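hiii so um. not sure if this is the right channel but i have a protein structure encoded as tokens and i wanna go backwards to a sequence. like what aa goes where. can anyone help
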């Protein structure tokens, strides 16, 4: 009797997991809407152009008014930036003409849709998301991918770039 109950519960769990994967495993990202170019990668003097979606699928394009980019390519650095930004006013990035860009391209779709996107949607700021590994390669310095990249811009051109790891360094770079 107990064996049948356990087997029934396990069957229901398996069905639930399969249903979860079927629903959350669907990729809604439309690669035709988004792109990024950098004339010389993530280096001083490189001219950048991009259009990326935020966590609500709203497209954002780099403009001449953007003064700084915060770019993260690792989970740990994303959490560092998130910890800092959650303590800031809602319009903190906007007032500083700064965009936060996070690479989520390595994430499996089911993990992204089930955990990451719902978490990003709780943020009171926009997070521009890189879903495509080719876009990530355009905007990433592989030697520094485990750090937070802060790029200072003038008319979409990188005037300086710094790689940091701590909240204190981030706070200092954004002042």
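sure thing!! here u go:
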């Amino acid at each position: 009797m107990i064996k049948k109950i356990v087997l029934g519960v396990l069957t229901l769990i398996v069905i639930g997991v399969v249903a979860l994967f079927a629903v959350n495993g669907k990729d809604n990202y439309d690669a035709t809407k988004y792109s990024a170019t950098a004339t010389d990668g993530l280096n001083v003097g490189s001219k950048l152009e991009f259009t990326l979606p935020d966590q609500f699928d709203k497209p954002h394009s780099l403009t001449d008014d953007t003064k700084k980019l915060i770019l993260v390519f690792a989970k740990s650095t994303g959490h560092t930036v998130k910890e800092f930004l959650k303590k800031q006013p809602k319009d903190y990035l906007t007032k500083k003409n700064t965009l936060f860009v996070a690479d989520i391209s390595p994430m499996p779709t089911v993990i992204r849709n089930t955990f990451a996107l719902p978490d990003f949607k709780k943020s009171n700021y926009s997070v521009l998301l890189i879903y495509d590994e080719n876009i990530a390669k355009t905007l990433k310095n592989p030697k520094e991918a485990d750090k937070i990249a802060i790029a200072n811009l003038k008319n979409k051109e990188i005037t300086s770039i710094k790689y940091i790891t701590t909240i204190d360094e981030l706070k200092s770079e954004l002042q």
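oh and Strands lie at 35-38, 48-53, 59-61, 68-72, 98-103, 128-130, 148-154, 157-164.
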